[in-house]
Fold:
Amino acid sequence: MDRVLIAGAGPVGFTVALNLARRGIPFTLLEGGDKIFDDPRAGTIHPPTLEMFATIGVTDTMIARGIVVGNYHYRDRKNGVVADFDLGVLANDTPFPFRLMLEQHKLCYILHDLLKNYSGHEILMEHRVTGVEQDASGVVAQVETPAGPKTYRGSYIIGCDGGRSQVRKSMNVDFDGFTYPERFLVLSTRYDFQPHGYAITNYIADPEEWCALFKVPGADDRGMWRVVFPADAAAPPEVIFEESAVQARIQGFHRKEGPYDVAHRNLYDVHQRVASCYRNGRLLIAGDAAHINNPLGGMGMNFGLHDAFSLTDKLGKILLEGANESLLDVYDRQRRTVAREYLQRQTIENKNNIEQKDPARQAEFYASLRAIVADRDKLRAYLLRVAMIEGVRRAASID
Ligand SMILES: Cc1cc2nc3c(=O)[nH]c(=O)nc-3n(C[C@H](O)[C@H](O)[C@H](O)COP(=O)(O)OP(=O)(O)OC[C@H]3O[C@@H](n4cnc5c(N)ncnc54)[C@H](O)[C@@H]3O)c2cc1C
Structure:
């Protein structure tokens, strides 16, 4: 069988890879970088993602390495808790009625380790895809390598190569949407916020400076807190990262004696975009290559992982069972529809709500959250949506 090419060894590329390996489909995974990226990005994993990984025996390891979070807070920066969301209400909807805090690079390490149990594939680091062409029987990727330019041939290429995807650019599809005027600043500290009444996950609304506060396991699994703030797009990174500026930000959020130990400081541009099509013949995209969104709600990577399971299921049927290639159009329709209906809508709404400047609208929003947590049926309906279960069900209903 011809090999499948995968561009990009991020969480989505590795998930595609393991799903192909388990089916005995040979592949070459081409990664531009020299190692798995470990910058602080996704840390939240939602119930349907855990359900999908459970089907391939990965979830127990993920849970063993992560932090299980049964509730999260929506807070007002000045007045404290607005609503405490109990994910336990989803107990009849999912075997995993919680969020799992686990950094995305650790998920990559877990998947990379599992791939060692399979043969018939290669993982090539420092192999950057620079262009892709296709003919009737396959694709050819042009690849920049330490030994100079090379070409790789495969039956299909799956672009899991992130927001600036070269595979997407080779497909000639639009990537419409918008970029927010501000960036997101992520600061990490070991300081423990839990004794001060914070949950492991907190969304903290404020008209001037909202923030989000999460605990992830951290490099030594002893816990690392991430504090996310909006940052002025015009300010140079060195000004934003300057020690006194960083201390002022985090002390402004939670005053404590002595300076914070700030382990990481990172800035991210934030966009809302969806590709106009996820397929052009033998070229396919998944994950950030296909859709990008702001991280409030912790949905982007999860959504890309759902793409990976959906696409490999369909590709497996085509390559192993002789199913019609039109299944790849079903992949496009299912995943692109829910990217627009759920991922984009929900994350845009999350950002509008957390930074709401109109006091009347903010009060209305807080009242709606309080009404949701006060009523078990409303809470379940709300959490089915924000815990990403509804999106998976909706995708499955599309032919
Ligand atoms: C601050 C922040 C917090 C976030 N938190 C969450 C969260 O809690 N939950 C969540 O679900 N999502 C979250 N996200 C989003 C999440 O990080 C992304 O959705 C996720 O990284 C997408 O995974 P991916 O594998 O599609 O792409 P990436 O992680 O971007 O991986 C792409 C890979 O492709 C490689 N590559 C790029 N170009 C090429 C090329 N031409 N050839 C070969 N290789 C190439 C890159 O080196 C990289 O390894 C967050 C994002 C940010 C910025």
Observations:
- The chain has a mean pLDDT of 97.
- The chain is about 35% helix and 25% strand.
- Residues 327-354 form the longest helix (28 residues).
